[in-house]
Give the backbone structure.
Amino acid sequence: MQQKDVLPMKPEPTEKRAATTAPLNITGSEAVIRSLIAEGVETIFGYPGGAIMPIYDALYDFQDQVHHILVRHEQGATHAAQGYARTSGKTGVVFATSGPGATNLVTGLADAYMDSTPMVCITGQVAAALLGTDAFQETDVIGITMPITKWNIQVTRPEDIPGAIAKAFYIAGSGRPGPVLVDITKNAQAAKFDFKYEKCEYIRSYRPVPVMDKDAVAEAAELINSAKRPYILCGHGVLLAGAEKDLIALAEKASIPVASTLLGLSAVPVDHPLYVGYLGMHGNYAPNIKTNECDVLIAVGMRFDDRITGDVSAYAKQAKVVHIEIDAAEINKIIKADVAVHADAKTALQALLGLVKPAKHDEWIQGFREADKQEEEKVTKKELYPTEGGLKMAEVVRLISERTEGKAVLVTDVGQHQMIASRYYRFKDPNTNITSGGMGTMGFALPASMGAKVGTPEKEVVAVIGDGCFQMTLQELGTIYQSEIGVKIVILNNNFLGMVRQWQQLFFDKRYSSTEMVNPDFVQIAKGFFIPGRKVTDRADIAAAVDEMISHKGAYLLEVVVEKEDNVFPMVPAGAPIANIRLE
Amino acid sequence: MQKEYTVTVYTEDRIGITNRITVIFTRRGINITSLTTAETEIPGVYKFIITVLSEKAKLEKIVGQIERLIEIHRAFVHEEDEVVYQELALYKISTKALQNGNIEQLIRENNARILTLTDEYFVLEKTGHQQELIDLQAKLAPYGLIEYSKSGRVAIVKWSRRFHDHLKELSALRPDNLKEAKYGNAEVSAEEESI
């Protein structure tokens, strides 16, 4: 094992050194670990099993360089890797074994693919000679994950391992990021070869950095300069490109109001004077209705999800659309762009900034504030400052927002609590909103919060979770305890699958088919994992409980019993024009 | 409106690429009516020629999603008049039919040719557009057609020159770092190392 010291294997080795050092004769398994270290990997979320045992054995010798977090279910590993990637900006890494280990990755891969999250999953596979024979724990993970990965590959020889891993990291992290899966047969893990690692920097059929059309930028600038009612929609692409400041600079220069998609949240501080709120089915009133009043719509790094557009035939018909997007397949997919800027958000926004003229649109912006008043009157006041009845999700979220000064990483699950948290948490810093947007994966938050905390240990990480969601992945409390991950878990418990119940109430004549939950004692469950917690049912106790949670060092679970049959408003009924947004 | 379109896709040579392409049609419930694939004049670059009955707007989105795949160079949708194309059919017919003088005339008139002849059967070949091949099949039926087999479409794009120049430039670039691995050929990898 002396060989280990021959290669420079610190988190940031230069590929040149790795390339010029004499090759090491090592097993495929050791090559996996050394390749990961060469890519700067410090944390792996995973779960061992038969077909990946040689890799785990190799990992044993590198524990001082790579931290492996043993999850309780492979799905948890994928969500943790997503949370890690979204807060740290690095590629999340997952290990799983063949067969069921690999199939358990499917939900997380699909989620990461929809939400453009860089992730590399390495799965063990039966020996190459057994492929296709229905061997024990053999599954065609390449076939299964083909439509939900940005790329995947099966490696059957050790000498292909470094190249496959190099490509995997290059693909996962470049262009529009996404998940990649590398399936390595057991024989390739065991056999020895001369290891040499070279980072991948190009693939001839893959152009992650588009060549920006300067004429398109000029046209976009012209449209913006001539606009009376310009409007920016800020998507996840802004955060992925690290273009928050550029977006704000553009908005400020030409005085353009900015709304955010669900995944674009936290790119612009909620208290910024030009920030007008959150878009979509349960977003704010003003940003939704104003989409149909603006004259130039500037969509940045977003893909016009149906939760945002509602009925596309009635979406922003009056507006000229400027679409800034790194993924060419998203341009004109849903909404026809009058000017398409095929580029990374940062590159495009910087180019635009130079061409856009200073302007004032006070009256237009004032219109948002007027509309806000309606939402405040009909929705927000009642949600934030109720005087009677059970606790409201919104008041709990706002309290957490105040106590963390909007600076915590907010990890949300899927459903009513997610919409409420996205509406009422007042984000201050970029990349502090972690949620499952495109897939809407229940059970996402608890494992994602672990990754988010490991990715940014200096930050407070608060997971806001519904009672239904929590029970989908609660086994990860074991991981939180074992790996001492200090996440704050808030369960907003309404004893219902609340969002489905809301739809049943509004669209299915209150026929509450299989949505009521008989729940366990969540605090007691946390105690079983040695995680302290508290249950709150009264408004009078909530502030003290949130303070206790925030001041507690280490993981903590706060269960808040909230109003049982509460609805999230505003609401755009699915498939309806956004003009049909309901405030009550 | 539904029409027949030709979709061409230029790809790297990689296991599973057919799956990756076809699944994108499958997702939108579009049936592929024919698929032909072979290496192009540029070594290592493959061309898929796919015919589908669909709508242009839909296909343009599909082509965008195909191009998003890592190992795809480019993908295009073509109208009927943008491509020169042919299909090939083979017809196996009982040799007894040759005793009927009319069949020889039929073969000549349809520009078909006999590929092979045995005591029992002969095999006829014809290239043309789909409808011509189907028409010939109908005409041959009375003579004792035993089996009929038709290829997918082979097409040349009329305006392909610039794109093919681009592909040639590409071929000067080293294929990705796993190329040599797939062939397990030490010589290939040594050569590519030196580029």
Remarks:
- Residues 1-20 of chain A have pLDDT under 50 and may be disordered.
- The first helix of chain A runs from residue 15 to 20.
